[in-house]
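Pinned message: reference record for N-acetyltransferase 9-like protein
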Amino acid sequence: MKINNTTQITGSKVILVPYKEHHVLRYHEWMKSEELQQLTASEPLSLEDEYKMQKSWFEDEDKCTFIILNRLKFQEKSNEIDSMIGDTNLFFDNSKKEKIAEIEIMIAEKIDRGKGCGREATILMLIYGIEKLGVQKYVAKISIENVKSCNMFQKLDFIEISRSNVFKEVTLEKNVDCTWLNRLRSNVKFEMNENYDSRLNCTLNKTKNFE
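Predicted structure (tokens):
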């Protein structure tokens, strides 16, 4: 989705930046992890396919993604690649009249887990989806084994709708309303810069671009 191409969202612990080509190599290294593949229900991709996927994320109007940075590391180093800790995504079902988005969150760096980074990144994305993209309802589909993520979404007022032992997945939903949005807003610092140039804060990826 191109709408967030120059958007930076800053919280207290994390910063969200658009997923660009220079992030791909680090992201690809993350996704070699069997643990992350299992938690995100993902299949390993070749580096070439990872570049194609990044391009798809940028161009497709039914997807929105941000890379999550550790704010403290970024303030110290001013380098996105060194500060990357995960990503958060929205998938839209454009066949329905109601604006529904499936939300995903991944904290890939183990050292940054259990510190509230995932929760804050999720809330920032929820707010952005509502205020900028017009989301009216959220859906979260989570691996049954990912108990921490299930608990986090439930604490954010998501309700479990179904549980599939076949797909080993829990589905939770939350309808958007003003009261909930205000509660989300009260839980985080939310600053948005829509003129952010990601290229100024990275170590450029020297790996071949497979466009």
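Pinned by admin. Summary line: The longest helix spans residues 117-133.
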